[in-house]
Design brief:
The protein is of the alpha/beta class. It has one domain: Metallo-beta-lactamase, Chain A (4-Layer Sandwich). Helices cover 15% and strands 30% of the residues. It has five helices and 17 strands. The strands form four sheets. A seven-stranded mixed beta sheet has the order 8-7-6-3-2-1-17. A hairpin with a 2-residue loop joins strand 1 and strand 2. It is globular, with a radius of gyration of 17 Å.
Length: 281
């Protein structure tokens, strides 16, 4: 089996990452549109891409799994729909899984919050657990597709060596409070930012909410994504960076540019290093 300690995240752009650990290769929120192309967000709304992805879909390595937070055009686009292997397992919401199966992805797995899906490679296992998320405040949420966060547990011989939490496109909401109670030991938190605005409503975390999320989730370290790729994003990365500095949390956060790789901190003998709790601002 590959060395469990050889664990990495490659940042393609937006919320698209290639996560490798324990012999698994996982693709998240596949978005390979090019600069100037439009992602469709429903209700006749679209947004233009500002950036280029760090790779083309044809350059992807062999994949074991896709984790899809929800069905919006900046997370699942026409290039992914036409270019990914139809036999790939895709773990997502029940709403998105139904649409994917209509597109020919027969192995799409739809989860509700706290439901999970297992994959196995020899002594290595990957468990993906769906976590709550809320894409918009108040009644506006009913106009948005259901969205999920996810916890990815990579284990060897039954022992979890690496636990990631991906926020998904969410705003801060009471529904998130159960996540740290069930998963109090997140090694890396991957936070979707951008302060995305659709029809005048903010539908993803801005810089201030991103810091609130760090205080709630208490990850050992954090990676921000989903912050500058589309015109609908109203809160650039610098907003989050300013809030992080003011809150004294700079030591927790690592910043990846598109095309860069981050080595993930795998636990030694299943033990998470002790770190003081992140207190209130």
């Amino acid at each position: 089996m590959p060395d469990p300690a050889d664990a990495t995240v490659f940042f393609v752009g937006n919320a698209t990452m290639i996560i490798r650990s324990h012999g698994f290769t996982v693709l998240t929120d596949p978005n390979f549109l090019h600069q100037g192309q439009r992602a469709h967000l429903g209700w006749g709304v679209s947004t233009r891409r500002r950036t280029e992805p760090a790779m083309e879909i044809g350059q992807l390595p062999p994949l074991d799994l896709v984790v899809l937070s929800h069905m919006h055009g900046d997370h699942w686009d026409r290039i992914a729909r036409n270019g990914l292997d139809k036999d790939l397992p895709i773990v997502t919401t029940r709403h998105a899984a139904a649409r994917l199966r209509r597109q020919g992805f027969d192995h799409a797995v739809g989860l509700e919050s706290w439901e999970y899906h297992h994959e196995r490679h020899g002594d290595g296992t990957l468990t993906v657990t769906a976590t709550p998320a809320r894409h918009a405040p108040g009644p506006a949420n009913a106009l948005m597709p259901p969205v999920m966060g996810s916890v990815l547990d990579f284990a060897h011989a039954g022992e979890v060596d690496l636990r990631l939490h991906i926020s998904g496109d969410t705003i801060m909401d009471e529904c998130l409070s159960e996540i740290p109670r069930r998963f109090p030991d997140i090694d890396v938190g991957i936070v979707h930012l951008g302060g995305t605005r659709i029809l005048g409503v903010t539908v993803t975390m801005d810089g201030a909410q991103g810091v609130e999320w760090l205080r709630l989730i208490q990850p050992e370290s954090a990676l921000p994504v989903h912050y500058d790729d589309y015109e609908a994003f109203a809160s650039p990365l610098k907003d989050f960076q300013q809030h992080v500095r003011r809150s004294g949390l700079s030591h927790l956060v690592h910043y990846l540019m598109r095309g860069e790789t981050y080595r993930l901190p795998v636990r030694q003998a299943g033990v998470r290093p002790h770190r003081p709790v992140i207190g209130p601002g």
